[in-house]
Write a structure and sequence with these properties.
Number of domains: 1
Number of helices: 7
CATH superfamily: Jann2411-like domain
Mean pLDDT: 85
Order of helices and strands: HEEHHHHEEHEEH
Radius of gyration: 19 Å
CATH topology: Jann2411-like fold
Number of strands: 6
CATH class: Mainly Alpha
Distance between the termini: 39 Å
Low-confidence stretches: none
Oligomer: single chain
Strand content: 5-15%
Length: 211
């Protein structure tokens, strides 16, 4: 059976945090450059896939975007800028570097624009903040992503942020939740096995050439 093509609407959500899953919609390494978000409908598809929108909301926003293409394009462009900001911040963190002040300032600017006020929402004995935003706004999916980045930056999980160690084509970010904090790849199935196989064949070729 042919492997299903990876697209915005079925991309693996393995970052461990919403903001990191969003950065993983784009890959740029020395050997691979791949974009999963090409236009606003892709942003909608990924947001539905990431449970930021339900089917009805996604359909309504799709119709609104079709009626307001200029606005939809502007929102999409802002989404790509936000994604780049978040990626640079957490890529720096993953490599034990200090994020650029300009990127932190850019994220703060997003948070300052956040619509509505937070309210406490309970899930059993656990309480969390939930922000109220206009669900009919074309940029409604972007605010939870920005808040997710702020939450991660101020959480105890920040030192666990990692970048995939696959050496031939992945720069995805993730939170290492393993007990001994030794997770090297975004996914063992995606990159871990490929990296191990590549290294195995490299060693095998090296042994053959010596023979």
């Amino acid at each position: 059976m042919a492997r299903k093509r990876r697209e915005a609407g079925n991309l693996e959500l393995i970052g461990g945090q919403l903001c990191l899953d969003f950065t993983n919609t784009y890959t740029q390494t020395e050997v691979l450059h791949h974009e999963y978000l090409h236009h606003y409908p892709d942003l909608l598809a990924w947001s539905r896939h990431a449970s930021l929108l339900n089917d009805d909301q996604a359909q309504q926003l799709d119709q609104k975007a079709a009626a307001n293409p200029t606005r939809a394009t502007a929102v999409f462009d802002r989404a790509i800028v936000l994604r780049g900001t978040i990626y640079r911040i957490f890529a720096a963190v993953a490599h034990q570097q200090t994020p650029l002040p300009a990127d932190v300032a850019a994220l703060n600017a997003w948070l300052a624009e956040a619509p509505g006020r937070p309210q406490l929402v309970s899930a059993g004995a656990v309480f969390t903040w939930q922000w109220r935003q206009d669900a009919s706004a074309l940029d409604t999916m972007l605010w939870p992503i920005a808040w997710s980045a702020a939450d991660l930056l101020t959480s105890a999980d920040l030192p666990r942020v990692r970048q995939c160690a696959r050496s031939d084509g992945c720069d995805w970010l993730f939170v290492d939740t393993s007990k001994n904090q030794s997770r090297r790849w975004c996914s063992m199935n995606l990159c871990g096995s490929r990296d191990k196989m590549r290294r195995y064949y490299q060693r095998k070729r090296g042994i053959s050439s010596k023979g």
